[in-house]
Write a structure and sequence with these properties.
The protein has 259 residues and is mostly helical. It has two domains: 133 residues, no CATH class; 124 residues, no CATH class. It has eleven helices and no strands.
Length: 259
């Protein structure tokens, strides 16, 4: 039972320290958007800590840590390129928050990101600490769905990045590839990642508590910093073009266009 407490606490201390450093950097460069990069990077840190310290069945531990590291590396790289591309100009969402929040509130926001890293890693902890030497079909299904969701999230991010690279698309709405079927395919696959992780974790002791992950991510996507803030910014920057896109295109689950 001690590992169920010690590994999360060690992980929390590590990512909280990282976020203090990143907060000070954000103050210096006046760009709080870098928090997104290191929120993703912190999952890689936690995956490494788990891989070193967890004493569950080795093959299962390697699968969960490998998938977590793959996802974290992909997302960190993507966000590093996106945010790093305009490091001197803060992203619209954080510009808006800067009008509403002071530096102290941002400090606690950064620390809440670190706390969310640990809370969302609960499935990783319970999977990697599972001593059962047999991996069930449910776990393989969860791992397979997780890999497919990582690919889907990466594809949607790539399609959006390619669209933005073309200067003639400035001010337009991306409807390329997956974005033709969902206004937020990246959020859809992000949510599916956590559903997949829940499925993977269910056969492990305490695996049921992993339900907190898709529930909390779903809340953030639908109610806080995901779809609401993204769409508000999109309407501000693209106007009627985006309103028309909202009217014809599914908000979340990829689906056919409405006439």
């Amino acid at each position: 039972m001690s590992n169920y407490l010690s590994i999360p606490l060690i992980s929390w201390a590590a990512v909280a320290a990282i976020m203090v450093i990143i907060y000070l950097w954000a103050l210096a460069i006046k760009n709080n958007g870098i928090v997104d990069i290191f929120w993703a990077f912190n999952f890689l840190v936690i995956a490494v800590i788990i891989w070193i310290l967890a004493d569950g069945f080795e093959e299962r531990k390697n699968i969960v840590c490998g998938l977590a590291a793959l996802w974290a590396l992909r997302l960190t790289t993507y966000l590093g390129i996106r945010v790093g591309g305009h490091i001197k100009e803060e992203e619209g969402r954080y510009k808006q928050l800067r009008l509403e929040w002071n530096d102290t509130k941002f400090f606690f926001f950064f620390q809440m990101q670190a706390f969310s890293n640990v809370m969302l890693s609960i499935p990783f902890f319970v999977i990697a600490l599972n001593p059962n030497p047999e991996i069930s079909i449910i776990e393989y299904i969860g791992a397979g769905m997780w890999l497919i969701s990582i690919i889907g999230e990466g594809l949607s991010d790539f399609q959006l990045a390619q669209f933005k690279k073309n200067p003639t698309n400035k001010g337009k709405v991306c409807e390329n590839g997956l974005w033709n079927y969902s206004r937020h395919p990246n959020y859809f696959f992000q949510f599916m990642i956590w559903v997949s992780v829940l499925i993977f974790a269910l056969p492990s002791p305490y695996g049921w508590i992993s339900v907190i992950c898709p529930l909390s991510i779903g809340y953030l996507i639908f109610k806080v910093t995901g779809i609401p803030m993204t769409e508000e910014q999109a309407v501000r920057s693209k106007g009627q073009l985006y309103v028309d896109y909202q009217r014809t295109t599914s908000a979340f689950v990829p689906w056919f266009k409405k006439k």
